[in-house]
From TrEMBL:
Coiled coil: none annotated. It comes from Streptomyces gilvosporeus. Residues 471-613 form the Thiamine pyrophosphate enzyme TPP-binding domain. GO terms for molecular function: acetolactate synthase activity; flavin adenine dinucleotide binding; magnesium ion binding; thiamine pyrophosphate binding. InterPro entries: DHS-like_NAD/FAD-binding_dom, THDP-binding, Thiamin_PyroP_enz_cen_dom, Thiamin_PyroP_enz_TPP-bd_dom, TPP_enz, TPP_enzyme_TPP-bd. Residues 1-27 are annotated as: Disordered. This is Thiamine pyrophosphate-binding protein. Pfam families: TPP_enzyme_C (PF02775), TPP_enzyme_M (PF00205), TPP_enzyme_N (PF02776). PANTHER family: ACETOLACTATE SYNTHASE LARGE SUBUNIT ILVB2-RELATED (PTHR18968:SF167), THIAMINE PYROPHOSPHATE ENZYMES (PTHR18968).
């Protein structure tokens, strides 16, 4: 298992405990504590050789001895305090970094990173964001990309309040984010203390309860790690959701001999299924002349993607993805039909709605408005079978379908083992038939203005090896439709809450989890909300390109306010190049497709943070025509409106 620590030798060093493989890949630039020379800036972008040196210098150290400064300042103790136990446990569970903004009541966490005592630092590394909201979105991005969980640490009260938008987004998309905090010391409650968040004050635990699977405040040092254990256990419950755990400041500094529970990994299969039901479904599928698969976010795990790709190639199976699972099956693969759902691809809609196989398998599909393309369901197949590990979703994506409650990986492995050569004789003809349908909508001529669709296709042609992180707005519609993923799990977006600016923080978190270059497709409205996290990307030397689609408006709202006064949706012009340069990034202003082609070619192989200010046509129609038609029909069926 990748979380089991293995022994290895490093030239010039004694035998040490190596970090898990996923952390090895995600660790470049992590182990510089705030205040070290590396982070003083604005830093210059350094070459990969420097990053490799940092990897050798900082990652191959012996596991530090947990020596912690007491809260009262009486010196060093041999017993760890609560904050250190938590940080070491998070590392052991697979988190290589946490995201935070400093604050007094969380000093216990920060005191583990003493200047001049780097050998004693926890292995998990702090990343300081511009704002707590950005830190929460970084933790969300990290959770999605690592397929484990992400961690944000914030001062309770104003800091935690700033995370609510990010936590609500993570909740809506079932992303397991750990929100840790510190609050007023014991004895300060019921005294009108500054930033009192206990039940005698703001009571943030109650505020966060609807957004989390557990929301706890700890005011006693009697058994503080038990609360952390409860929090960890909740992370593996279905559906996965954020968790919140806040300690009184003095409790965080208190010594403890308790050891936390070990949850190992969130990626392991946890739900087995009834063998009779499993056999029945597999028999139905294998008796079909043709079959196609629609994969959803519940199944978007590395092991599932690997098996699904193998099945598709061995048995000529067409595969589409729901909107929230775009990239779960690499879209440059010849058996991909693209996205089914909001702003999806016509080929996928043809396969799953009109001209389908004998059997459609829905694997881990979540029944949201966008995923179902406006509640269109799936039709055109004799058998529609939903397989999911989530009880909440079963039977809801396509009402009337057959259902199987089963871990998605378990199902695919049993299905693969049951297959014989020569199965699904109709698949080849199905592929040929569906292949005649266009994948992308035609792009209308918009005159001299830069059409966002052309911009996305141009970026895709030069930057296809990057992870695409799409923000909320009209630009997301164009990115969903016209961006073709060329790498495994190459696309991330928030698809239920629609938090504007999410992609700025999420891309930073994703880059720490995977250490791969990213491209953010965002808008000017999103940049106004969360664009300051560009400075975090620069500070930590991330390899991210931010493409700001500037239509001088809140684009989606503009489309709905055509007949209203412009001030309701229009935005003033901004110079995003100067904005980027003020934070140490390089910036380029682009007004035409030829300029974009030149700039994208120039920066495609360069590291560092780049900002593209794309001046685009605000009136370009989004490729979501079928969704709008379905949504109007659904509304009419519920309200009688025409």
């Amino acid at each position: 298992m990748d979380l089991l620590r293995q022994r290895r030798r490093h030239p010039g060093l004694s035998e040490i405990s190596a970090r898990p493989a996923h952390q090895e890949a995600a660790s470049v630039g992590l182990h510089q504590a705030p205040g070290e020379e590396l982070l003083r800036g604005p830093p210059q972008h350094h070459p990969r050789t420097d990053r490799e040196f940092l990897r050798a210098e900082h990652l191959h150290r012996p596991l530090p001895v947990p020596r912690i400064i007491r809260y009262c300042g009486t010196g060093i103790t041999s017993m760890p305090n609560v904050s250190r136990v938590i940080l070491d446990s998070l590392w052991a569970e697979g988190a290589s970094a946490f995201f935070m903004v400093p604050g007094k009541q969380i000093n216990a966490y920060m005191s583990n990173y003493r200047d001049g005592e780097h050998a004693d630092h926890p292995r998990i590394s702090p990343v300081i964001s511009a704002a707590e909201g950005g830190a929460a979105m970084m933790a969300d991005g990290y959770a999605r990309a690592s397929e484990r969980f992400g961690v944000v640490i914030a001062l309770d009260g104003p800091g935690v309040a700033n995370t609510v938008g990010g936590i609500s987004t993570a909740c809506a998309d079932r992303s397991p984010v750990v929100l840790l905090s510190g609050h007023v010391p014991t004895g300060f409650d019921a005294h009108d203390a500054l930033q009192d968040v206990t039940p005698t004050g703001l009571d943030t635990a109650s505020v966060l309860r609807p957004l989390t699977s557990t929301s706890l405040q700890v005011r006693s040092a009697a058994h503080p790690i038990r609360y952390f254990d409860i929090t960890l256990r909740k992370l593996v419950e279905q559906p996965t959701r954020p968790v919140y755990l806040s300690y009184a400041a003095d409790v965080l500094f208190s010594e403890t001999s308790d050891a936390p529970v070990r949850m190992t990994t969130l990626s392991a299969s946890r739900l087995t299924c009834d063998p009779v039901d499993l056999g029945r479904v597999i028999d139905t599928v294998n008796a079909s002349s043709s079959v196609a698969v629609l994969v959803g976010a519940q199944a978007n795990k590395k092991a599932v993607r690997r098996v699904l790709t193998r099945l598709s190639e061995d048995h000529d199976i067409l595969v589409g993805s729901t909107l929230d699972a775009k990239g779960a099956f690499t879209e440059s693969h010849p058996n991909s039909v693209g996205v089914f759902g909001y702003s999806g691809n016509e080929r996928a809609h043809e396969l799953f709605l009109r001209n389908g196989p004998e059997t459609v398998l829905l694997i881990g599909c979540r029944p949201s408005q966008w995923n179902t393309n406006g509640w269109a369901g799936v039709s055109g197949a004799e058998n529609v079978i939903e397989v999911t590990s989530e009880v909440k979703d079963i039977g809801r994506f396509s009402p009337g379908s057959q259902t199987l409650l089963c871990d998605e990986l378990t199902f695919l492995e049993h299905w693969e083992a049951s297959m014989t050569e020569g199965g699904f004789p109709g698949n080849a003809a199905l592929r040929e038939r569906v292949g005649q349908v266009r994948l992308h909508d035609d792009i209308p001529d918009g005159g001299d203005a830069l059409n966002p669709a052309h911009a996305v296709k141009c970026l895709n042609s030069w930057l296809k090896d990057r992870i695409c992180v799409a923000d909320s707005g009209n630009h997301r519609s164009f990115a969903t439709h016209y961006w073709t993923t060329d790498i495994d799990a190459g696309f991330y977006s928030t698809t239920n809450m629609g938090m504007m600016g999410w992609a700025f923080g999420a891309a930073v978190g994703i880059s720490f989890a995977r250490d791969e270059p990213c491209l953010v497709i965002t808008g000017d409205g999103c940049t106004l909300m969360q664009g300051m996290e560009i400075q975090t990307a620069v500070r930590y030397r991330r390899n991210i390109i931010f493409a700001i689609f500037d239509n001088s408006s809140y684009g989606a709202t503009h489309m709905n306010n055509i007949k209203n006064i412009p001030e309701l949706s229009a935005l003033p012009g901004h110079d995003w190049v100067k904005f980027a340069e003020s934070m140490g990034a390089t910036g380029f202003r682009v007004t035409s497709i030829s300029e974009l082609d030149t700039v994208a070619q120039k920066i495609k192989d360069s590291d560092g943070v780049h900002v593209l200010h794309l001046v685009v046509d605000r009136d370009a129609p989004t490729p979501a025509g079928s969704y709008r038609t379905n949504l109007r029909a659904f509304e009419a069926s519920r309200t009688g409106a025409r």
